[in-house]
Amino acid sequence: MGRIGFRHIAAPLAVWRDGEVDLAMLQPFLSGVDGWALAMTSLNDLYGRGGDPSQSGGDFAPEAQLLGMTIAELHGALAEAFGTWPADPQGWARAMAGQLTRISHPDLDKARALEVFQKLEQVPDPGPSIRVHGDLHLAQAMRTEWGWHVLDFEGEPARPKEERRLPTSPLKDVAGILRSLHYAAWSAMQRSEDKSLELAEAWEQRNRQAFLNGYREVAQSSGGILPIGQDSFDRVLKAFELDRGIYEVGYELANRPSWVEVPLAAISTLY
């Protein structure tokens, strides 16, 4: 990635290999703050002051927009480094439906989720498949004095390794950041004294839009990695957001059952 000009990763300085197997690597130390901590600082300031998130002293929107631009640059670099493949909305939808069969909760409406995945299969211009980060969220991005850097490209740990390496829509990563913004807003709301849902939703929507604005500005200028047309973009993104939310339901049930309401609340708006 560094060889093609993408500088927003900690590029390996040395690799220890045994034949074709990488055993370890050495990377430079990055000094900064991760995106989750930066978002929580913004939310804590907002809940301390109240009012409009844009007027908060810790407004996160400029950083969210810059992060969106960085992720679009990442996807352009991944497409250049590894190539692109034809979109496979039918295959994406099958994988999403397969995950759905493995996760159960009484508040998870599987029939309505399948309708969203079926609509994905019918998207006429879904954009190409590329290699993606695969498990992108705010804690996987670090803000340094040189801008945002992206960390940890191992993919979602609960998915099989073969599935993590498959090329897919870059909107899978976009959905990961959007879901992380929702998690941050919910977490801050739960810790606050007034537990204002209105403040949480206002913060999430402002930063969601800022991230998408930054992402689309750069991705459209680089060309060729986005679905063609607003309707196609929205349908592909909704399917990947819903898929990520369902993954999160399974993760929370297995690791933090008290948090399962977070993805379930988001899923209810995505059907």
Account of the protein in words:
- With 271 residues, the chain is mostly helical.
- It has 9 helices and 5 strands.
- A 3-stranded antiparallel beta sheet has the order 3-4-5. The chain has a two-stranded antiparallel ribbon with strand order 1-2.
- A hairpin with a 2-residue loop joins β1 (14-18) and β2.
- α2 (61-82) packs parallel to α7 (197-222).
- The radius of gyration is 19 Å and the shape is globular.
Summarize the structure.
With 271 residues, the protein is mainly α.
Q: What does the secondary structure layout of this molecule look like, with pairings?
A:
Elements: E1 14-18, E2 21-26, E3 33-34, H1 35-49, H2 61-82, H3 89-102, H4 110-121, E4 141-144, E5 147-150, H5 161-164, H6 171-191, H7 197-222, H8 230-255, H9 261-267
Helix pairs in contact: 1-6, 2-7, 3-4, 3-8, 4-8, 6-7, 6-8, 8-9
Task: Name the descriptors.
271 residues; mainly alpha; two-stranded antiparallel sheet; globular
Fraction of residues in helices?
40-55%
For the termini, the CA-CA separation is 37 Å
Biggest sheet, spatial arrangement of strands: 3-4-5
Proportion of β residues? Answer: 5-15%
User: What's the alpha carbon Rg, rounded to whole Å?
Assistant: 19 Å
Helices and strands: which structural class?
A: mainly alpha
